[in-house]
Structures are given as C-alpha cells and as structure tokens.
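Exercise 7b. Backbone tokens:
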C-alpha cells in the first residue's frame, strides 16, 4: 500500500509537544514497519520546512530526540533551521522510509483558456484550474496536496492510494467525493474509516 503523508501528520510526528504526536508516531511507524510506502511531495517538504522554521524562531515546540539535543547547542535561528531540516530529512528517510517525490512533467507549461484569453501555467496548476477546483470545495492549501497526489499517480507513475491527514474537518466533508473523483482514499487516525 502507498500513502501520501499530509504535512500536519509529519509535524505531529516530529514534535513531542504536538497533541497528536503519539498517534502520529504509532500510525507512521506501524505503516513503515509493515513495509508500506510513505510519500510526501515537494510541497509537503516546503510546507514542513516553513512551519519548522517559524516554530524554531518562536521557541514554542520541542522536537523528538536526538534533534532537540542538537538544536539546544545552536543559538542562531537561521542556522538552526538549516541544521534541523537536514536532520529531519535523514531521520524521516531512515525511520520511516519516506520518499519526498516530484516530477518535472508537472511543471511543463500548458495553455489554459479563459474566455478569449489564454494563460500559460504549469500542468499541475492547469489540473487545479480545469479539473479539481470546479469539483472540490476545499481550501487551496489542501487542494494543492490533492493535486500533487493525483498528478504523481496520473503523470509520474507513482500509484498513491491513501492520503493520511489529521485535517478531518476539511477533508472529512468531501472524502467520498475525492475517492470517486480522484481514486484517492482520505484516511485519518482521528476518525473511523
């Protein structure tokens, strides 16, 4: 089985101060121990990096060990961000086998027609504009993740079946529609299947 991991699940896994940390740790390590494949996209990675750097500067979160021990020795927040993302990337690959994937074909520019006008956009955005936005009523930051999962499967031959998220409020309302429209099952450790 293949899973796409939403950023909120990864953040909960990495920070012991997150209220879903234990749940995230159990579910991700269980999936990895069963030798299922965990994926994140470059959008997941960038969003995770942004969140982590904001939280490091705010000093509000405590990381899992050994990350926390290393961070306490570095005072410059920019250097902390760079160090922690390198450590996290290796940790996620080693502990969970997570693969952050992308595909250059998603960024090939294509024409999107708007009435008498045309706009040239990356293919991933064309799919958002033509196929996903008209069908799915969900916030853009969630929709972009769905677009990546959909396109990684459709264009890049990475067959992702499950989208693992803690965002039950947004995805829960339309999870059946997502499965029907995109063939992706939304799963959350916080709600029954």
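Sequence design result:
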């Amino acid at each position: 089985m293949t899973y796409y991991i939403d950023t909120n699940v990864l953040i909960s896994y990495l920070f012991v101060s997150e209220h879903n940390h234990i749940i995230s740790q159990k579910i991700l390590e269980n999936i990895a121990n069963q030798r299922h494949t965990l994926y994140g996209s470059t959008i997941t990675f960038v969003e995770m990096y942004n969140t982590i750097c904001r939280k490091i500067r705010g000093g509000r979160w405590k990381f899992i060990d050994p990350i926390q021990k290393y961070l306490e020795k570095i005072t410059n927040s920019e250097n902390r961000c760079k160090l922690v993302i390198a450590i996290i990337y290796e940790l996620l690959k080693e502990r969970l086998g997570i693969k952050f994937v992308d595909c250059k074909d998603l960024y090939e520019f294509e024409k999107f027609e708007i009435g008498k006008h045309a706009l040239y956009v990356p293919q991933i955005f064309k799919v958002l504009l033509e196929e996903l936005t008209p069908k799915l009523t969900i916030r853009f930051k969630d929709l972009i993740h769905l677009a990546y999962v959909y396109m990684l499967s459709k264009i890049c031959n990475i067959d992702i079946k499950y989208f693992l998220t803690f965002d039950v409020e947004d995805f829960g309302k339309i999870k059946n529609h997502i499965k029907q429209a995109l063939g992706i099952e939304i799963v959350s450790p916080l709600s029954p299947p």
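Instructor comment: The mean pLDDT is 89. The beta strands are 2-5, 37-41, 99-101, 109-114, 117-122, 162-164, 185-187.
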